[in-house]
Amino acid sequence: MLPKVTIIIPFFNDKYVPIAIQSALDQTYPNIEVIVVDDGSTQEVDKIQPYLDHITYLRKENGGTATALNHGIEHATGEYVAWLSSDDMFLPHKIQAQMDYMIASNSSVSFSNYHLMDKDNQVFIPWCGKRFNPYNNAKEVYESFRVENPVNGCTTLIRKDIFDKVGVFNPGFLYTHDYDMWFRILLNGFHMHYIDQALIQFRSHEESGTSRFQPQILHEMKTIEEHYRPILHDYLEKYAVF
């Protein structure tokens, strides 16, 4: 049997959640489970009701996206974990494309490119992410983290046992817990492999956290970069991982 993939959807008062859930259920990869983690929502919960027979629904007190992801990871039964924000959507072949690549290359972490869509699900910037050489790009990815974060968290697919080695998402970072995680993955010697396909649609809208909390996001990013980039520099110089 093919390895199981758990798709975790953190949810908090988001009207777009049915689109996210349906895109997870519509995956062409046959062995998936979908976990929706309700992070103490007070609105839009009724939109999940039609899907309850097809998903695992977990409700917890509000604690932020990192805590919701960690709760989902704790309950995941898959060998691999994907994360889908409740206002974004996976393209139907997202999981299949990554599993094909990761099994063939024996890799533990992969990510892809993505399209930017608006509030009406219309793509207005295709291939929005940074692109790398389609082959042997692990070194490029490491080097990229010296100056930027090239990874959209919802494009990732990660072997679940990675979290046993690097730890789970840090709830101290309300908005950039993913950025912190990527550094920990890289510094533990796990290459993040880029797949040159656009496999999700990432939503840009006025209600998104990315739009509403820019000052906080920038502050957290600065904290992470000041801590990890010198360590990354020394790691790359010392171990010459490539």
TrEMBL record:
<protein>
    <submittedName>
        <fullName>Glycosyltransferase, GT2 family</fullName>
    </submittedName>
</protein>
<keyword id="KW-0808">Transferase</keyword>
<dbReference type="GO" id="GO:0016758">
    <property type="term" value="F:hexosyltransferase activity"/>
</dbReference>
<dbReference type="InterPro" id="IPR001173">
    <property type="entry name" value="Glyco_trans_2-like"/>
</dbReference>
<comment type="similarity">
    <text>Belongs to the glycosyltransferase 2 family.</text>
</comment>
<dbReference type="InterPro" id="IPR029044">
    <property type="entry name" value="Nucleotide-diphossugar_trans"/>
</dbReference>
<feature type="domain" description="Glycosyltransferase 2-like">
    <location>
        <begin position="6"/>
        <end position="166"/>
    </location>
</feature>
<dbReference type="Pfam" id="PF00535">
    <property type="entry name" value="Glycos_transf_2"/>
</dbReference>
